[in-house]
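sry for the spam today, last one i promise. struct tokens for design, 283 residues
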């Protein structure tokens, strides 16, 4: 049997993971009051954003301990199963390192760790690809080699509605954030090669959506054979223009719309919207 495991930043809720036959390891989110929550378990996305809006300082996330991974790895070893762990980008977190420590402690060759170079819905796309391949009865080697290849084609593009979270995270000065708010400036972010970075700015949300659609083309376009996911932070209506563009302008099937969680959501704040997709060809 092949087990597939990911961490909570893939934004797959526990009940959905159970239905998919997927194992989850949670990160922790700690707010300015010092209280920590297990991501996706002790704190739902709606609860997270309600607390985020009330914060003066951004919350922090911490990687799972090696012990949390070891529990899953030892269970796989004891049952004679192989396990593929598809995890949050090593350029954003030490989650992969914790898993590698646990794998070394377990001493079992059936553990395979994939650094997704992704987060949130990009990570989820790769997890869903692995689940499909498992259903197709592909081997562990086939799944892992495909993931290692395809992860380089995954992108996340997002529109940010409120500059104050960029200011709190140190990506903008207070003066820049104030001036941008007066002018209605909306940043655009991209997750590429394992890192989140500022990709552009536009005036007003309508202009930001147009810029987002141009960025889709600039990145190489969406591979319709691989599927995509649309996401939002706190307010689902923010994702509606993205879904309409994909279905009406590009003629794609309506994608699933998902709540983006803590890793990206901490820095974008509520009201953001974005898309995770595989670029066409070997981009």
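last one done:
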């Amino acid at each position: 049997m092949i087990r597939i495991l990911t961490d909570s930043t893939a934004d797959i809720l526990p009940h959905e993971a159970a239905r998919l036959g997927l194992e989850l390891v949670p990160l922790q989110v700690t707010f300015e009051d010092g209280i920590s929550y297990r991501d996706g378990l002790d704190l739902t996305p709606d609860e997270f954003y309600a607390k985020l809006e009330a914060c003066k300082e951004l919350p922090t996330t911490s990687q799972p301990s090696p012990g949390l991974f070891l529990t899953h790895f030892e269970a796989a070893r004891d049952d004679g199963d192989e396990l593929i762990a598809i995890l949050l980008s090593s350029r954003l977190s030490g989650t992969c390192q914790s898993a590698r420590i646990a794998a070394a402690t377990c001493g079992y060759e059936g553990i395979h760790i994939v650094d997704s170079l992704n987060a949130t819905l990009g990570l989820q796309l790769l997890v869903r690809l692995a689940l499909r391949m498992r259903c197709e009865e592909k081997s562990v080697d086939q799944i892992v080699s495909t993931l290692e290849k395809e992860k380089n084609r995954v992108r996340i593009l997002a529109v940010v509605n409120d500059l104050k979270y960029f200011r709190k995270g140190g990506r903008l000065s207070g003066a820049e954030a104030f001036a941008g708010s007066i002018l209605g400036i909306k940043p655009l972010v991209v997750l590429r090669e394992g890192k989140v970075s500022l990709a552009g700015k536009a005036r007003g949300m309508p202009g930001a959506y147009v810029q987002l659609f141009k960025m889709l083309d600039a990145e190489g376009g969406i591979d319709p054979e691989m599927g995509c996911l649309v996401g939002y932070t706190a307010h689902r209506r923010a994702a509606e223009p993205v879904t309409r563009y994909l279905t009406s302008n590009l003629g794609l099937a309506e994608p699933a719309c998902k709540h983006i969680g803590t890793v990206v959501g901490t820095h974008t704040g509520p009201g953001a919207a974005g898309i995770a997709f595989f670029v066409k060809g070997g981009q």
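The CA atoms of residues 40 and 240 lie 24 Å apart. ok im logging off now
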